[in-house]
Please model this.
Amino acid sequence: MNLRANKHSKINVHFSKNSQDFVVREIPMYEFSQNGEHLILHIQKKDLTTNDLLKDLSAATGVKQKDFGYAGLKDKLGLTYQYISMPKKYEKELKNFSHEKCKIIDTFTHNNKIKLGHLKGNSFFLRLKKVNKIDALKLEQVFTKIAKQGYPNYFGYQRFGKEQNNAQSGEDILKNKIKFKNHKLNKFLISALQSELFNRYLSKRIEISHFAQDFSKKELKEIFKDEKLVNDLKEQEHFFKLFDNELFEHYPFGKLFNENLQNAKERFLKQDISPSALILGANPRFNSGYLFELEQEIFKDYIELLQSQNGSRRYLWSFLQNASFKYNEELAHFCIEFTLQKGSYATVVLSELLNDEIIF
Model:
């Protein structure tokens, strides 16, 4: 299980993904130009996957599924808003489209097809139910803390399947133990292995951060055998501990760079940068020093195995934007709203908030 940054006791509430209690709104990367060969559909859908939506749109309009564009797959459960692009020449055929689980709420024209990742992020609304007054106070305290300091940017359970065995399947594919006819499925399962390795590394960094917070310098010296490293860890204000000259990225968008610890501490507190970790693939760029040893501990058995895959880096730590909450004591409802950068998971925030594993 992934370690969490917050150590409070589990908060027992009721939450389910449905159209009243879970709402996701996609935030596009850019304003649409209002001219061009592509039609942008702003779609509201309820309890429907993005893939099923595209199948139904294709059947109604005659547009091939590969000719639709979208920035990301949205949850089946809940109420979601997202942008879909299609060739504008099929606009008249949209009159044939009607669906009980979705509707087109607006249209735009644009000069480009929407591609994966073409979004700033997503805004979320979550309603927690059966929340008593004492637990509401706990939720307020923890949510305020997360809104101030951020949260560990794990890949969510959705990445790993209902049985949480996608990563193992990905490893088996690379070792030629299994293979599926569906190329996209093979690719997704391999990415689940890469995501699992990222989560392992992040969990280890969370463990180190707890050590630095909870142990004395004397105790830490017995663990790390490095007085300067121990002093650096103990002197940091933020819970998530940074290391000298590790690889950072500007937050929430930006390029990869090294930064000395003194500058990094200040910029991290301002939420200007975030440390990054490997999505292991071809030609990985490792850190140096202690972090290199840590990376080898996590990744060494998979470096050769994943050499054929595309690699990248991902923020280890993320921050909420536009965070707010509201408690209705009469209804025992605690509602939270926040915006996340693309690729981050609301269920990870919820797990951190409740100190509970969130799997639907």
